[in-house]
Structures are given as C-alpha cells and as structure tokens.
Amino acid sequence: MKQTNEIAQSHQLMQKKKKDRGWVPWIIILTGVGLIFLFMVISIAKGAANISTITVWDALFRFDSENTQHLIVVDLRLPRVIASVMVGASLAVAGAIMQGTTRNPMADSGLMGLNAGAGFALSICFAFFPGISYIKTMLFSFLGAALGAFMVNTMASRRSGEDAPMRLVLAGAAVSALLIALSQGIALYFDVAQSIMFWTVGGVAGSNWMQIRIMTPWILGGLLAAIALSHAISLLSLGEDVARGLGLNTEVVGGLCSLVVLILAGASVSVVGSVGFVGLIIPHLARYLVGVDYRWVIPTSAVLGALLMVLADLGARTLNPPFEIPIGALISLVGVPFFLYVARKQGRAL
Amino acid sequence: MMMTAQQQINEAYKRKIARRNTGIMIGCGALLIISFIISMNTGYAKLSPLDTLRTLFGGGTAKENLILFDFRLPRIVISILVGMGLALSGCILQDISKNPLADPGLLGINAGAGLMVILYVMFFGAKSFMSVLTLPFLSLTGAGTAAIIVYTLTYKKGDGIAPMRLILAGVAVQAGISALTTLLVAKLDETQFSFVATWQAGSIWGSNWKFVMALLPWLLLLIPYVLSKSHLLDILNLEDGIAYSLGASVEQERRKLLAAAVGLAASCVAVSGSISFVGLIAPHLARRLVGPKHRILLPTCAMVGAVMVSTADTIARVVVQPSELPVGIIVAIIGAPYFLYLMKIKSRQQ
Predict the structure, then answer these.
(1) Among A101, A241, A263, B202, which has the minimal tally of Cβ within 10 Å of its Cβ?
(2) Which among A106, A175, A198 has the least Cβ separation from residue B101?
(3) Which residue of B lies nearest to A326 if distances are taken between CA atoms?
(4) If you measure CA to CA, which chain A residue comes closest to B331?
(5) Measured distance CA(A279)–CA(A99) in Å, rounded
(6) Which residues in chain A are closer than 8 Å to B185, comparing Cβ atoms?
(7) Which residues, including other chains, have CB under 8 Å from residue B161's CB and lie 6 or more apart?
(8) A-chain residues within 8 Å CB-CB of B281?
(9) Contacts of A243 (CB under 8 A, 6+ apart)
C-alpha cells in the first residue's frame, strides 16, 4: 500500500515537473517574439540617418511618397529588417534539423553542401559573367546551393546497412571541401577572390521587396513543415534504430528533413551569404533553454535565430557608421563567449 | 572438431586480412615512390628522367644540382612530411573527439595561424619577411596559442577533457578567430589580400632545407610516439566506461595524445598554410582501406596523407605554369571525389 502511494506520489511529482517545464518554452518564445518586434522598430529607427519612432509609425500606416524619411523606412530599412528576421529564423531551424537528424553537434546547414555550392556558383558568376544583375546573382547562388545539396544527398543515399546520418555527415564534408576548393581555385585564378568575399560577408544590406516577395512563401512553408516534422525529428535524434523501432519511417522523414533544410538554408544563403554560425549556436542555445524535445527546440530556435539576426544587423549598421561591419563576423564574435558558456553548462548535447 | 574448423576459418580470415593490409601498405608505398619520382621530373625547368637520375647520383651539372637539390627535393620532402603529420593529427583528433568531422582545424590551429599571418601582413606588408623562418614562426605561435585556448576552455576540473566539450570549444574558438580574420581581411589591399588568400588555400611555399630542418625534429619525435600508442587509441575509441575498465587512464592519455596532435598539426601548418582537408579525409580513406585497428590504420593514414599532399603538390606545379595553384585546392579536388567513390563502393558491397 505504502509502495503504491509512493509511486503515485512520484508520478504526481513528475506530472508537476512536466507542467512546470511546460511554462518555460512558452515564456521564452513569447518574450522572444516581443523582443523581436521591439528591436525591429529600433532597427528601423536607427541607422546612418536617425528617424524618430513617430515618423516610423507614420511611414508604416500613413505612407507619404514625397517624404524622404518615409521612403528610407519603407524602401530600405523595412525590407532589410524583415529579411533578417526570416533569414535568422530559417538558418537556426535548418541548423536544429541538421543537428537532430545527424546527431552531430558540429552539424549545420553548411554540411548539406549548401554554403559551398552557393559559393561555387558565385565564383563562377564573378569569374565568367561579371556585371550580372543582383537578382540573377542571387538566383545563381540558390541554384548552386541546390546543386551542392543534390550532390551530398546522391552521395549519401544508400541501399541498406551503413549508418545513414554518418554517411550524410561524411558526404557533406567531402562535397563541401570539393566545392570550396573549386571555388577557391577559380577565385584565385581569375583574381576575383576579393569581390566574392565582399559579397559573402555583405549580409542583408541589399535586401529589397522583390527578394522578400520571392523568399517569403518558401521560408514560411519551410518553417511550418519543420514544426510539423518536429516530433519525428525528436525520435530521429534518439538514433535511427530507436526511431525505426518506434515505428518511424526513417527514410521518408530523413528525405523530408533534407528538403526542408534545402529550402530554408538555400533561400537564406542566397540572400546573406554564409552566416553559418547562427545555424550552429542557436540550436545549442535552444536545447540549453528548453530541453531536447524538438517540438520546442524548433520554434525556440526560430525565435532566437530571428532575434539574433535582427540584433546583429542593427549592430553591424550602427557600431561603426557609416561603414558596415560584416554581419557574419559580428555574430561570431558576440556568439562565441555565449556559446562557450552554454557548452560548459550543458549536460546532454543533442 | 567443429571448434577447430571454426578456428581454421578464423585463422584463414585473419591471414587474408593481414595479407590484404600488407598489400595496401605496399601499394601506398609504391604510389609514394612513383609520385616522388614524377615530382622530381616535373616543374618549370625541364629535366629528363635520365638527367634526374644522373644528378641524384652525383653526376649533374651545377644548374641541375641546384634545381634538384635546392628547389625540388626539399619541397617534395616537406610535402611528404606535412601530409603525414596532418593525417596523423586528424586521425588522433577524430578518435579523441569521437567525431568523424574533426580535423586539425578543430583545435583552432589553422585559424590561429591564419590570424597571425594576416596581422603580420597588415603591419609589415606581404613582401617584407625579415627571414625565411619568420612566417613559420608566426604560424606556430598563432596555432599554439589557439590550441592552448581551446584546451583551457575544454578542460574542466573533475571531468577532464570530455569529447563533447572539446568539439564545442573547438568550433567556437575557430569561429571567433575566423570572425576576427574576416574583419581584418576587409582592410587589406590587393597584394596583401592575394597573399593571404593563397596562404589560406594552403600552399607549400617553404621549399628550402631550413624548413625541412625546422619541421623534421617535431615529426621524428611525435610520429613514433603516436604509433606506439596505437593499441591505446583502439581502446579510447570505445566508450569511456569500457576504456576505464580495460585499464586505460583515459584522461591522462587523452591529454597526451591531444598535445601530440597539436604539435604535429601546428608544425605542419607552419610550413604549408592551411591544408586541413588532408587531416579530415586521410583518416577516413585509411579507415575505408584497412579498417579501424590503429596498428595498421595509423601507418596507412600517414602514407595516404603523404601520397595525397605530394601528388597534389606535383600537380599544383604543373597545371598552371609558370604560376602555381595552392596545393590545398588540388588536394581537395582529387581527394574528395576519391573519397566519395570509396563511399559508394563500400555501400554497394554490403
């Protein structure tokens, strides 16, 4: 009798614990979203030309095409902020998916060959078609990203037997190395290395409404798909065998995950270049905050990623005006100490 | 009777494996010698094979002697040594971190060395090296400092060097230093930039006996040490608990091996620029060729690394005469497809 009581008690305790834990992610996500809006407004107001918050409000709701400040807000700053939110969220979610499915803490979307592919396409662009238009360059680099991902997936696909995540990781590393080497070779031979570098560290500076119109449906779709897949990703993060034992069709889920990563990260990479560190640190941070259930990790990653990107873009523009600090470098510099702290605290890593 | 039959089969299998492994070792050795000979014969100044042979045995003209002994031979020796060092270092790191994506870059070695080189080039210009040993010395300092930082961040009292923390700390430090590098690179002028870009792509520029002399003692000391630890590496590859119960003092050995890996990689990067891809792929290639036993894996790994770098260096000198492509690029362009091919083959066999 006593024993049953104890069991019941501990059960209750566990239920309570679960409930307690349940609040944390909600708070983080809601606070995160609030902060994103706050910093979006600040980000729109601050910059080379300072604009008051009231003017920003006016520009958004009573737009006047004669007013220069309104034009700056609507045509330059707003698309840029929206782009950073989307890019940050997608890179972080793509990173979380990669880390969960490959069970490797060093994984991010770069592992799918996306960044390397985009870089390869860019170097071809700059070497053979100089002076090509901005949108075309972007399209080219998305195609490059897709090519990279396609190569990695073809190489990693297998009949049966070997560990699938392991194959993906190795194929990703090899294909990336190959593509990076090719683009380095082209860049050095045709002497375009420096212009490629300026493009890839450029960040969200050149975003415009057209880009956003193209990107939005894909990224929103990708994010929703990621949330829909999150339960399956939790299972996959326990190991392929366990997942299969729990009744998951690992091949289908793995394929879908790859597709989602391609869409999210491919779109982002073609807009901002390689800001790899977001996809690497944010999932670790999210797991540190909300635990290892990917149903929480993925939304939290999206929110945190967006927040980080908005903040970083704000910093990149305002710390050293009128020059811009490369956003990837800024994120790494701010992110590294934080990441190290989390790394030391963290118990389970995936 | 059954038992002995089984034993016989086992014995036969073991012998077959041993024979195959010896075959592979001999193959690697032959490849190395062939690439050595070809490398001796190729280059900007034409020498016929017969001339080369005659010069090697002391019958050459002064010019032939100069070309062969002062230009080509040191360079070939260096490429072989660098290949061995980086491959072994990568192999150890993949074992210690238990991560297939680890390479010497994980310790921040490449990034640290790169940062030092860039700082020097920024302040003193690309052409003003005080002595031939300035650059290797700088790289060594940078690499060593970065490795010490990674090590300090990884070490935790009572828990020693946990693989997961090593990876996270390594990735973070690497990213942080690369970010600094990006910020600095944006400020370089064109000559400085192309010098740095070439260095980063990895090129053996130190073709001089002094470099050989600077590199050799490290490798002569560390390679036998690592080889003597092969049994221990087998054990460390298991789970920590099992390794402990087999009587290995896991922590201590891990620390020593880590130090050895740092020494190998840092000294190699100092003369070769960052060719970290060798350290990533050579261990995997060797593992695919001879399996995971370190007694045979380590020598094979060293051989594979040596063949890769020396072949790549030969090709690098020939492809775009009279200027040359950085050898790191060639290593990746040749190594990656071969690795992917091996991956495909293996999966078909299963």
Answers:
(1) A241
(2) A106
(3) B183
(4) A181
(5) 9
(6) 197
(7) B96, B151, B154, B155, B251, B254, B255, B258
(8) 173-174, 177
(9) A232, A235, A236, A250, A253
Domain holding B172: CATH number? 1.10.3470.10
Residue B174: name the closest of B227, B105, B237 by CA: B105
> Between chains, do B183 and A173 touch, taking CB under 8 Å as contact?
no
Chain A contact for B331 (CB, 8 A cutoff): yes
Burial class (CB in 10 A: 0-12, 13-18, 19+), B349: exposed
Give the residue among B74, B36, B67 at the shortest CA–CA distance from B211: B74
Closest Cα in chain A to B350: A161
pLDDT tens-digit profile of B57-80?
777 777 777 777 777 888 888 889
* Nearest CA distance, B183 vs chain A (angstrom): 7
Calculate the CA B234 to chain-centre distance: 20
What is the residue-wise DSSP string for A96-138?
Answer: HHHHHHHT-TT--GGGGTHHHHHHHHHHHHHHHSTT--HHHHH
Structure tokens at B321: 């005469």
Nearest by CB to residue B171, choosing from A173, A175, A280, is A280
Separation of alpha carbons A53 and A72, rounded Å: 13
Cβ within 8 Å, pair B179-A330: yes
For the residues B37-58, what does the mean pLDDT come to?
74
For chain B, the domain total comes to 1
Identity of the residue in B99, B183, B339 whose CB atom sits nearest the CB atom of A174: B339
Query: Rounded to whole angstroms, how far apart are CA atoms B89 and B163?
Result: 16
ipTM of the assembly? 0.72
Q: Do A188 and B194 touch (CB under 8 A)?
A: yes
Query: Is residue B16 in a domain?
Result: no
In a domain, B259, yes or no: yes
How far is it, in rounded angstroms, from Cα A208 to Cα B164? Answer: 41
* Predicted local distance difference test score (pLDDT) of residue A350: 47
CB B307 within 8 A of CB B115: no
- How far apart are the C-alpha atoms of A90 and A93, rounded to whole Å? 5
- Here the tokens at position B123 are 């302040």
Percent of chain A with pLDDT over 90: 9
In a domain, B29, yes or no: no
Within 164-223 of B, beta carbons closer than 8 Å to A belong to: 164-165, 167-169, 171-173, 175-176, 178-180, 182-183, 185-186, 190, 193-194, 197-198, 201
Nearest to A161 among B178, B179, B347 (CB): B347
| Domains of chain A and CATH, by start | 27-345 (1.10.3470.10)
In terms of residue numbers, what domain contains B271?
76-94+102-343
Determine the 3-state secondary structure of A320 from DSSP: coil
Per-residue pLDDT tens digits for B258-284: 888 888 888 888 787 777 778 888 998
Q: Is residue B192 part of a domain?
A: yes
- pTM for the whole thing? 0.76
